[in-house]
Amino acid sequence: MAPIRWDSESAAPTTPEQVSDATALSAPSRAPSMLSIPNRPGKLNARIKYDDFLELAITMTREIIICSSAPASTQVILHNMRTLYEMWFEIARHDLDQLDLRVREMVLGIPDDHPSHVYHLSQLFSEKLCLVMSSGDFGQGIELFDRTNLNEGIDRRLEVVSAAGKTLDPQDTDLSVYITDLVHCLRKLYDLLPNDENFEELIHRLMRGLISCIDITSDERAVVKGRRYKTNQDIDHRMDCCDNLIEALCIRFEDAGGFPGRKGNVLSYLDDAISIGDAAIKNMPEHEQRLKSLPRALMLRYEKRGLRKDIDEAIRLERLQLELAESGERSYVHLEGDCLNELANFLALRFERESEFNDINEAVSFSERSVKLGASMRSGVLASWKCDLGKFYGLKYSRTTNLEDLEKGIDQLRDALDELDAANVDSKSPQRLQCQNNLAILLGWRYERSRQRDEGVGSAAQNGRPEVNKDLNEAIRLLWQVALEPNLHNFDTDYIRSLNNLGKFLTWKYKISGDDNDIYLAIVLGSKVKERTDEQSTERARYLSNLADMFRLRHIKKKNDTDGESAIKLLKEIVSLDSTPPTHRISAVLEAISWLEETKNWSDLRKITGAAVRLLPRASARSLRQTDQQDILRRYAGLTSLAAASVLKAGGTPLEAVTLLEEGRGITSISQFDTRTDLIELKAAGGAASKLAEEFELLRDQPEPDESFKSISTSKTSQIPSASRKLDEKMEEIRKLAGFKTFLKPPSENDLKAAAGPKGKIVIINISFRSDAFIIDKNGIELCELGNGSDLRPELDKKIKAFAPHAHGSSGSIFETLEWIWDVIANPILEHLKMNKACDDGNWPTICWVPTGLLCSLPLHAAGYHQDGSRRTVLDCVISSYSLSVKARLYTRQNMAKWGHQTTNRRAVLVSMPKTEEYEDLPGTEPEVTEVKRILRGSGFTCEDGSLDKDGIRAKLSDCDIFHFAGHGITDAVNPSQSGIILNDGSMSVQDLAGMKLHKRNPLLAYLSACSTGHNRDGALQDEGIHLMGACQLAGFRHVIGSMWVVSDERCPMVAQDVYETIVAENLSDESVAKGLHNAIINLRRKTGGSGYRRDRNGDVCYEGGEEEEDLETNGGDPRLWAPYIHVGIS
Which stretches does the entry tag as region Disordered (predicted)? Predict the structure, then answer.
């Protein structure tokens, strides 16, 4: 986003007056014309000698000052002094000393007791700067500074402002005039010599002096004055004054940030600007929309520090300015098109950093409106807005991958270039080169998309189709024009960004052409980019990743070990760059994985994938919308499993592998567990611990930028202090507190053993390029290799297809899949545990399964040979439960220990939904709930029929021990967090249930007798456990019963009856829930049969088969009916 600049499309100033108007941030109103000397006495100069005319002017001015008591007299003096300078510039440009002498004489003629005496003496300094600027002779400007005591001039101005602010009555003195003049002076200083370090301290002192004089942040009197100004007719000047100072500070910050090695904290300019704006809004809130520059100051600080509150406030203020512009009151805001474009840029920036999809949609909408309004404006402005719109379409495409967005972006950028041609904008102008750079990026993306499509259909053309390569060739041509433009070499971040893109596209070309010159040039460019990129740059990881890819490609073709070593060295640097967004670093690792696997470099693969997994929680910060979190995590599906496999392949320990699996899975839900344990305890500790908890939450919820699209027009201030580094530092600070040594650390080995309990076994199954089971019990962790060390992923993918969400596959294919799971996964584990024999004594061992990745879609508890009567099945050997992770199970145990787990109230909320609008009737739900009510009342429960709307159920769940729902369930494949149970007023979603904080009560059971309540249809998010059962566990229920796919309305009452009879018979013990479901599944396996069709609780009609019931004891019945039921919780 382009920084605030003076309108480059306007005609350049040619007169002192125009220079003054163009550079003055806020000028007081002109004096009445009757008291003014003519502005342009050029014709008079030919008839009157210079000295005579100057003497006449001085005399006239003295008389005016002495005789006039009008309030406008001070303005006349200022106006006349400026006119005298203009006359001097036209008559006697060569005589600086003579000018000083004459004007000082004029000012000294002002009576000492005149209120403007000191002010006009100090005005000499600023007016001389104005004239030097207009002359264009910067050499003479330096001479002027040498002849003038700058410190004296600034000290005089500070003296004036201080006196005006602290001794004069604000109703009688226009303080804004003095402040504006000082800002005007500052601007002249910097515009004249922006790079001269000798002025750094001088300007900084002037800025600080001004803020000190007006005491806008601390002086109580400033607040009083602000309130008095509310009714003052000059309030516009005062708000303009603040706005102008904010703008000056923004410009100073932007320019100072562009020079490497600049000393001092340039962020202080933004802090001062925002402090001034905050104080002005506090005193005059009804005029906040007039602070036109404050949103930009907030945006700039957000770019630098990454504080979400800054960009949110910037967007809020810009929306107010847009409303004012749309209302037609345009005196104090940009034109409507400017506001629309500015707001679109702010929203796009927030999208890049926070990944909130709604932002980029809004940005495109506002930008489209600005372009429509700009159709009647000059071509340069319209071109700029079209260039921005093209960029926004590109950003949208980066998320949607919708070709229409990409095409629209390309069209807008081409139109922008046409507009620049129409405006005769120079071919080497930064504005044109910005458009070219953005267009090249989008063309490159279109090429990449087409290439991937060709690869997907098995294109035989080795060198690609010509129409595809055309985009790539044009992108390279455009970027060469940018790269070879010498005027851009000083724009470091912009220039190197273009070089990086050019190197990347040359790499793509090399993949087509095989021309060594292409990869050679790419590496040269990539190396130059690396050298010129600051180590703290947020884009360094992206640049290094591209360079590593270049070395990898050449290594693959040339077998040059040096290239391979260079690539690995770069990858190691990338993962350690804590100043770079996590998404950049993780993506770089993903690109290198297949290469490291092929070269069998297990040691380096272990290091970089482990580092990438530890970045996942930061890449998907809690402050993001859940859909945005999910979108980020989809990109990295399978990474955690691969990292764990890499640990073992490289000779690491099972504990290290399990730790990675715990860190990289269930991120969206496990973060909730963390919040309710460690963070709650930290807040409860009070004092310094409580403060650290608040600071930690602020950093944790701040996402790192995901800058997937960068153009040459982006602000130069890209070196953002790393939130990742600050978060690490804050965690270490917390861990130094007594009792918080393990704050938010992954479970230790002792924690893992505690999660298993005294009798249970936890089995984590990891499927990747090698497959393993990690068996955890009270004694430690054991490793069980699966599949003889082979990659089970291809075969697993095939087997999953037999368990489609609605289970329409034949029962034969399902049996085959259950047998495969037994042979390859379940039986080796049970053999290792010596549990692979059918249990006949009723002393059932228990296993908690923790599957990973796509294995989460398969029923491990149902694995085995159910048709041959051999009893080689998991059901016949052990009682099964499931858990998203060990940490989730540990959380439940810790919660039980802390808050207790006795079911004392014995209250049950029972909900039956036999009829639901737009869904099929479910006649089985009423008898199911009636039977559950009978059983529970017999054991002393108070049973309430739940309300059929969300609010009613929420209210009753806050004080219940059992929640039983019988009705329809839905799964949302696009947004799993919106899967839910259907009520009268809509869906009660995963997100709704997860937000209920019932952990202090530890209710016993949530029984969800509906379809697919334990299933996530999004294969890339299986490790997140985003389903209704997980939500109930997260809400605080100790046990949850649900289903992996559709369930039969006719069979559900049978299962519920068996479950609750076991629970009541065993006095509501925690062990009874899993045992009750286990008994129910075995009974249903035996009983299932009949003929015809069944109604499931997903609203579908399914065929049940035609076997007779007595035959099903040997053939295993229909697993589509008995296998979907699962238990999550403590067993």
Answer: 1-32
